[in-house]
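Q: Hi! First time doing this. I have a protein sequence and I read that you can turn it into a structure. Is that right? Here it is:
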Amino acid sequence: MQQIEPCIGRRHVLVGLAAGALVAACGRGSQSSTAPTIILGEADPVGWRLGARFADGYTAPSSIVAGSLQRAPYVLLGVDGLPIDTEGPQRLDFTIREAGPGGTVVATHTVERHGGEPATPYFPLVFQINDPGDYVVQIDNKSEPHNLRVIDVDQTELLQVGDPLPAIVTPTIADPQDVDPICTETNGPCPFHEHSVVDALARPGPTALLVSTPRFCQSDVCGPTVGLLRSSLRVRPEPWSVVHAEVYQGPEAGNFNTTPVVTALGLNFEPTLIVANSAGIVTAALHFTMDANEVAAAMKTAV
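A: Yes, that's right. Below is the predicted 3D structure, encoded as structure tokens:
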């Protein structure tokens, strides 16, 4: 398969992927991922499709890296092309195989449904593929495959589990660093702007870094993430340092240049939650969409 040459800017990638949209690519050799029809049984609605709510290498440069556990959240799309939010199965059986006729099956997983109110239901496929290349994901042997490109870790700047969390100087209430506003939560600023990441890493206990823009994200996932993090902390006894960082420099004034944290983490999407242990090593990363259960599980990895 030919390499995609996207013609979309970082802002459009951030907004589009956060909304779960299949972002178009253009240029010579570009191609778009075809959302497959799912055949789940005679009682299931006709016309459901599998939609990637992550960067699969076709809608945007791949976020899936070979050699370590990766997370690929999928959604089910209805006949109108919109995510199904009130019906559908509670779990899906995924098969991943090498692309091409007779491709070898490399992984099979049963994935429970996540999300629901307030987030659109999704299925976070967690898997490991050791060799970079092109693969296909199927729900059953009758459904059309979803194309997936797995890349070598050297092909991305995206932070991985096991990497040290960079000592980033993020905006705080005392030092906004020309980011205005430093928090776009409706009743903001949220309580996670007391410390910069560099300061958080020097404090005892684990660190959680949430990158999102609640007011300017066109989806149902990047706004509620602040609330999900706040709720998770209520039941955690550890001395956490928690930082929320906005994506854009001055969105209310039309300045959609991204903040330094976006570059430091290798992001071309949002939202993202990075969890690091007391030694500053990343133990979990949730990208694109998340719910209360996944946030709670991510926090547990650091203690």
